[in-house]
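Supplementary Methods, section 5.1.

A reviewer requested that the exact input to the structure prediction be made available. We therefore reproduce it here, unchanged from the version used in the analyses.
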Amino acid sequence: MKSIGYSLLFMLFFANLAKGQYVPEPKIEAEVNQQIWKPFKQSYEAKDWRTFNELHSDDVLRISKWSGIKIGQEYKDRKRISYSKSTKRKQTIDLRFEHRIYSENVGYEVGYYRVIYDEPGKDRLITYSQFHVVVKKVNGIWKIAQDWDTDTINGNKVTEEDFAKGTPISF
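The structure derived from this sequence is encoded token-by-token as follows.
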């Protein structure tokens, strides 16, 4: 009886594989890194508002304590990134991941980011936050569909130690 159960499980696994529904998570993670996180880092640091917005779905849900809830075009129309291009402040963002879970077309990621701000004549500013992101495939391309972040966890500021717990991203 056990061998029938194992045989059935084995057949179902390969039937799904043959239909193309099983995609190993490392393959998806690599796609997400290349299609979202690499250009995210580049566009954020370059203050490239247009490319940054293209990484988000048209119906993106963005939540933060700093700007509240923004949906779709309302979020994409904000001028923070393009406005900051006029300053001489350099900004560097680094990401670390704690959890990354995917199905074929949807993923959920939890991690930390660190932003370092350098501006001539001013002290360096370093901020840390935690993020929760839902990614989904839109016309075959991974996009950010929901993005929430905070600089506190259970009332405590996110720290360098929290950031260090995450796994660095590799491109």
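Strands lie at 56-64, 68-71, 90-102, 106-118, 125-138, 141-150, 152-153, 156-157, 167-168. These observations are discussed further in the main text.
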